[in-house]
Every structure is written in C-alpha cells, then in structure tokens.
From TrEMBL:
Residues 250-368 form the Acyl-CoA dehydrogenase C-terminal domain. Residues 129-151 are annotated as: Disordered. The lineage of its organism: Bacteria, Bacillati, Bacillota, Bacilli, Bacillales. The keyword Repeat does not apply. CDD domains: ACAD. This is Acyl-CoA dehydrogenase family protein. InterPro entries: Acyl-CoA_DH_C, Acyl-CoA_Oxase/DH_mid-dom, Acyl-CoA_Oxase/DH_mid-dom_sf, AcylCo_DH-like_C, AcylCoA_DH/ox_N, AcylCoA_DH/ox_N_sf, AcylCoA_DH/oxidase_NM_dom_sf. Keywords: Flavoprotein, Oxidoreductase. Its EC number is 1.-.-.-. Residues 13-98 form the Acyl-CoA dehydrogenase/oxidase N-terminal domain. Residues 128-218 form the Acyl-CoA oxidase/dehydrogenase middle domain.
Length: 392
C-alpha cells in the first residue's frame, strides 16, 4: 500500500481526492509563472469554484457536502503538492466555513447568507485581523482599525495586513476597536467595499494574494455585526478548538511531500557515468531519502490522528485539543522544512535552478514557520496544559 493511500477512509473520500489530485497537477503547471511574477492565480480559484471545492465544507442544510476536518486536510495537502500558494489561500476560506459550521460563531441568519452565497456564486470568505502596528492578533494587541457607531450600524476605517486571498474575497471578517470605548468588535464586510493595496512581494508563498486591505469609512449594517466584546471578558461559547487551522500544517506537509517525490524520482533515475547504478543506491543518498520519509511520516500521522479525534469528539471536548493542534503545526512546519532541505541535498547544485521546482518549495515551506501559532506559543500552551492538573 502506498503511503498516500493510508489516510483515505471511504470511497467517497477517494473520489473527491481524485478531483483535487487532478487540480493539483494542473496547478503545478502554473505555479512557477505565478511565483516568478508574484501574481494571484485567478484561474486556479476559478477551477476550485468550478469543481465545487469551495462548497465542500458548507453544511448539508444549505446544500453543501459537509466534509469532515479529516477529509479537508487531505485535500489541502494534495493541493499543496501542486501549488502551496493556492492551497494556503483557499484553505482559509474552506476551513473558515468548516469552523463556522461547528462553532456557529456567526449569528444564524448571517451564516445562512454567507453559505447561500457560497453555494450560489462560489463566494469566498476570510478573516483579516493583522495590522501594521499590532502584528498578529494572537499576541493580543488592540486593533487600530476603528468602528464608529452610527444609525443602524457602524462605519469602519483602518488597514489590515497579510490579507490572504484578498483579490478573490467576497466576504471579509475584520476586527476593529469601537470608537470611544474599550470594546472591540468583529464585522463582516463585503469585498466590494474595500480597497486592495498590492504590498505582497515576499520570499515564498508569493501567489497567495496576501495584500493590505484598506477600509475607508465603510458602512456595516447591524445585520453584519458578528460580535462586540469587552476587554477581559472571555467566552467559550463558540470555542471549537480551532481544528480547522490544521489546514496550515497540511499545506506545508504537502509542499514537503512534493519535494520528497521530486527527490525520490531523481535519485531513482539519475545515474552519472561514474556509477553503475542510480544514486538512490549510494549510501549517503539512501540515508537522506530515509530521513526525508522519517521527517514526514510521523508529522502526517499525528495530524490525521488529531483531525479524526476532533471529528469524533463532542463539542464540549474539542477545546481541549487546541494545544495539540499547535503541536501539529509546529512539528509539521519544522519537519517539512527539514525534508525540503534534505531533498535539495539529494539533488545537489541543480536543485537551485529556476527551471526545477525545488527552489520554490524551499522558499514556500519557510513561510510556514511564520504562520500561527508560533513555536513559543505552542510550547507555552503545551506546558500549561501539562501542569494544569497539578496546580493548586
């Protein structure tokens, strides 16, 4: 049995995986061009809409497939083997719909509107919370974007960074401080109401469209207010453990697998005239290939195991898995980086050639080190969870 088939559980999953596998092959043919130019892959997004992928996590009550977290990360990993940028970008939408389905963090009528727009028009959604001054929202900074109460809603002004998928978004969840108040709010803004500033010019993941978005006195009606929160007041009512964030490690493991595949094929078929056999049989190359497998297999197994546990868990138990999901992200991104590095060592100096995909994998996979949660946060969460039972 091939490693890739270990994680498929049902025939329905297998059939859908064949769709994403074919898309992955198509995306791979376009990836170098978008990487070189730093352009957004609109045609890839169109393909994902056309095949229905953007609808697969929508609840059945609204006509979606309602696929599991386990299956979702399987498709994300597969798409990333073709193009990490496309996989990471679409993962935010598909994963966010999955999270909203389980957490019901949106008011019911607003969630229904979003799902119906996804089903009818292939509408896309993402959360945009990072800002130039506050950095990642996971660090707790108050957003400088401001929401001013007006009749029947709010007017919002501000700027968000790292707004992945921005060129294709129809719905944007933004955070903002409430004017003349210590409270903060979450608001759902229409994509047509924002301005995109094309700032995304980076080392890796160059085609995610993670530009800045600017809101200039944008009116948001009361019906699109998700929540208003007071400082120091925490609610667990919508805490689903954040399982959907496994799309991040799934993406970087997919990039690592693409590098693994390239190195394995190269080693099995390249035979310099100084040898009577392919380089795969050279001891130090064989060792590196084995190390690549040993980097990826435990990380993938942990990821799929915890996804299955989340799917099977009661809603009340899912928050307890959050620290372990962080562990998956830390383990996956670090091991994927090591696997790509080893793949390049197997291929040698030609691995740096722009005509081959390895140097793109090398750059793309490094971005995972900077996706949330950061390693220090993961280790802190694991430590606190481990000592919680023994504290007075």
């Amino acid at each position: 049995m091939q490693l890739d088939n270990w994680f498929v559980q049902t025939e329905a999953q297998r059939k859908r995986l064949e769709i994403t596998r074919q898309l992955s092959e198509t995306f791979a043919k376009r990836a170098a061009e978008h990487d070189r130019a730093g352009t957004f892959p609109h045609e890839n997004i169109a393909d994902l809409r056309a095949c229905g992928y953007v609808k697969w996590t929508v609840p059945r009550e609204f006509g979606g497939e309602e696929i599991s977290l386990y299956e979702f990360i399987m498709h994300q990993e597969q798409l990333a083997r073709g193009d990490g940028s496309t996989a990471l970008a679409i993962g935010w939408h598909v994963g966010m719909i999955l999270s909203l389905r389980t957490s019901r963090a949106f008011p019911e009528e607003l969630f229904r509107r979003v799902c119906e727009s996804v089903m009818k028009d292939g509408a896309l959604i993402n959360s945009c919370a990072s800002e130039p001054a506050t950095g990642s929202p996971s660090r707790g900074g108050r957003p400088e974007t401001t929401a001013t109460p007006v009749e029947n809603g709010y007017r919002i002004t501000g700027r968000k960074t790292f707004s992945t998928l921005s060129p294709a978004l129809d719905w944007i969840l933004v955070t903002a401080g409430i004017a003349d108040s210590d409270a903060t709010g979450e608001f759902l803004v229409r994509g047509e109401d924002i301005e995109i500033i094309e700032t995304w010019d980076t080392l890796g993941m160059r085609a995610t469209g993670s530009h800045d978005i600017v809101l200039k006195d944008v009116f948001v009606p009361e019906s699109q207010v998700v929540a208003v929160k007071q400082p120091g007041v925490r609610t667990e009512r919508h805490n689903d453990g954040g399982g959907w964030m496994l799309h991040i490690p799934a993406c970087y493991l997919g990039v690592g697998l693409a590098a693994r595949d390239f190195a394995m094929k190269f080693a099995a078929t390249y035979q310099p005239n100084s040898l009577t056999h392919p380089i795969a049989d050279v001891p130090h190359i064989e060792q590196k290939l084995g190390e690549i497998e040993l980097k990826l297999l435990p990380a993938r197994t942990l990821m799929y195991d915890l996804a299955a546990r989340w799917d099977a868990a009661d809603a009340a138990d899912r928050p307890q898995l959050r620290a372990y999901f962080g562990a998956v992200k830390m383990e996956a991104t670090n091991r994927a980086n090591e696997a790509v590095d080893l793949a390049m060592r197997v291929v040698g100096a030609r691995s740096m050639a722009k005509s081959l995909p390895l140097e793109r994998y090398y750059r793309d996979v490094r971005a995972g080190l900077h996706n949330p949660p950061m390693d220090d946060i993961v280790l802190k969460s694991l430590a606190k969870q481990g000592t919680a039972l023994y504290r007075a």
